[in-house]
Amino acid sequence: MAKPAAGGKWSAKVNQTSDALDLEPEIFEADDPKRIASSLKRSAEQSHRRKATPFQSAMSMLTFYINRAGKNLSPERRRTLEAAKDELREQFGRSKD
Questions:
Q1: How many domains does the chain have?
Q2: Does 82 reside within a domain?
Q3: pTM of the predicted model, to two decimals?
Q4: Average pLDDT, 10 consecutive residues per value, the chain (97 residues)
Q5: Does residue 21 fall inside a structural domain?
Q6: CA distance 53 to 66
Q7: Which partner for 92 in 12, 16, 55, 75 could form a disulfide, CB atoms 3.0-4.6 Å apart?
């Protein structure tokens, strides 16, 4: 894997230049799981560049963010983002099973 230029993080570049979704700025900082899920759903459905279904694209971006943040996420922040996953499933009519 190539190293990022000028000391930047490659994951930040992915979030900024994702070929799948145009994300609302700082959406992952929101405190409301429903707002996060709604924004991701809207972005995924409006994207003409994504390669997967809107649900898969939205869930992948959320999971990517959670995984990249790793240990830097507070337990409260992780709970909010995990709740956003559940909300995303609900908004797309998917069950967790």
A1: 1
A2: yes
A3: 0.77
A4: 54 56 86 96 88 92 91 93 97 81
A5: no
A6: 20
A7: 55
